[in-house]
């Protein structure tokens, strides 16, 4: 019993992260997730733009007006565009990214949203203003739209400079996707690397009565991203796990059938 308890505590000490994300270096930083963006003929990407300072102040005034910066990255983690917009006059504004920003984001795979030049009546008392808001996705052949909120604090921004906040350890760890993949459907797993180092990713799968096998392996640059597609046959159930050095290798998942789509966290 003592040996079993020691093994359990040793495992927790190594594999249970104390801090999934870092604290920004600068206390004036603002924070954002790395949100997936899908463009082209088949997909539209929306973002629910909130006037967060006005919501925190509890009223709209000239002090609530501020700038909102969208920064776009390609799948290799390189910045491809920056676009700034004024904050909305109401509490929430649904923004379709492709038509609003037009050229310059065709190669984008992710984006971050940073609020700047705002005033808060009571300050943040040592906290950080973070954009974890909702991104929406709609297929061109369907009338419905699916929404998913931010995964984790990925990026900090201050005076034009960005800092990655995700943590990666020395040892590999497994994150098992909580949702069993059920067919008939095509699943798309979207993974990002919010850490400051390159990370090798192994996507593994298994059926109910089988052992884990490697499905795909690749390396992600800092701020890099990758979409993995997986078909699940009718009446089939698959389980997925992500093996990497990331403290939280949790994907955003798209589930597609001929007549429906959904998006959620793994």
What topology does this entry show?
Elements: H1 2-15, E1 30-32, E2 35-36, E3 43-50, H2 52-57, E4 67-73, E5 79-86, E6 92-96, H3 97-101, E7 110-116, E8 130-131, E9 135-139, E10 146-148, E11 155-158, E12 161-164, E13 168-176, E14 181-182, E15 185-192, E16 199-207, E17 213-220, E18 225-232, E19 237-246, E20 252-256, E21 261-265
Parallel strand pairs: 1-8
Antiparallel strand pairs: 1-11, 2-7, 3-6, 3-9, 4-5, 4-7, 9-10, 11-12, 13-19, 14-19, 15-18, 15-20, 16-17, 16-19, 20-21
Secondary-structure class: mainly beta
Order of helices and strands: HEEEHEEEHEEEEEEEEEEEEEEE
Unreliable stretches (pLDDT < 50, length at least 5) are none
Q: If classified by CATH, what would the architecture of the largest domain be? A: Sandwich
CA-atom Rg in angstroms: 20 Å
Q: What fraction strand? A: over 45%
User: What is the CATH class of the largest domain?
Assistant: Mainly Beta
Overall 3D shape: globular
CATH third-level topology of the largest domain: Hypothetical Protein Tm1070, Chain: A
- How many helix segments? 3
Report the major sheet.
Answer: 5 strands, antiparallel
Distance between the termini: 34 Å
Q: Can you give the mean pLDDT?
A: 89
Helix content, binned percent: under 10%
Description of the molecule:
- The protein is mainly beta.
- The protein has two domains: 30-164, Hypothetical Protein Tm1070, Chain: A (Sandwich), CATH 2.60.290; 168-265, Sandwich (Hypothetical Protein Tm1070, Chain: A).
- 9% of the residues lie in helices and 46% in strands.
- The protein is built from three helices and 21 strands.
- It has helices at 2-15, 52-57, 97-101; strands spanning 30-32, 35-36, 43-50, 67-73, 79-86, 92-96, 110-116, 130-131, 135-139, 146-148, 155-158, 161-164, 168-176, 181-182, 185-192, 199-207, 213-220, 225-232, 237-246, 252-256, 261-265.
- The strands form five sheets. Strands 13, 14, 16, 17 and 19 form a five-stranded antiparallel sheet that branches. It has a four-stranded mixed sheet with strand order 8-1-11-12, with no helix packed on it.
- The protein is globular.
- The two termini are 34 Å apart.
- The model has no long low-confidence stretch (mean pLDDT 89).
């Amino acid at each position: 019993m003592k040996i079993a308890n020691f093994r359990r505590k040793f495992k927790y000490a190594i594999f249970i992260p104390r801090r999934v994300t870092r604290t920004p270096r600068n206390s004036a930083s603002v924070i954002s997730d790395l949100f997936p963006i899908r463009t082209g003929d088949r997909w539209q990407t929306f973002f629910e733009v909130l006037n967060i300072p006005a919501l925190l102040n509890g009223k709209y005034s000239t002090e609530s007006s501020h700038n909102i910066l969208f920064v776009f990255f390609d799948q290799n983690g390189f910045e491809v565009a920056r676009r700034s917009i004024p904050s909305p006059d109401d509490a929430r504004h649904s923004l379709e990214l492709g038509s609003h920003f037009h050229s310059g984001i065709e190669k984008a795979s992710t984006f971050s949203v940073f609020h700047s030049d705002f005033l808060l009546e009571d300050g943040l008392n040592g906290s950080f203003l973070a954009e974890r808001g909702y991104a929406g996705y709609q297929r061109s052949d369907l009338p419905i739209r699916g929404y998913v909120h931010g995964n984790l604090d990925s990026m900090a921004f201050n005076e034009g400079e960005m800092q990655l906040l995700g943590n990666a350890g020395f040892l590999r760890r497994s994150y098992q996707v909580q949702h069993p993949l059920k067919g008939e459907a095509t699943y798309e797993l979207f993974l990002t690397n919010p850490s400051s180092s390159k990370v090798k990713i192994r996507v593994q799968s298994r059926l109910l009565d089988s052992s884990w096998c490697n499905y795909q392996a690749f390396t992600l640059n800092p701020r890099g991203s990758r979409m993995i597609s997986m078909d699940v046959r009718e009446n089939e159930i698959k389980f997925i796990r992500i093996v990497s050095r990331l403290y939280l290798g949790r994907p955003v998942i798209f589930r597609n059938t001929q007549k429906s789509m959904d998006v959620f966290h793994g």
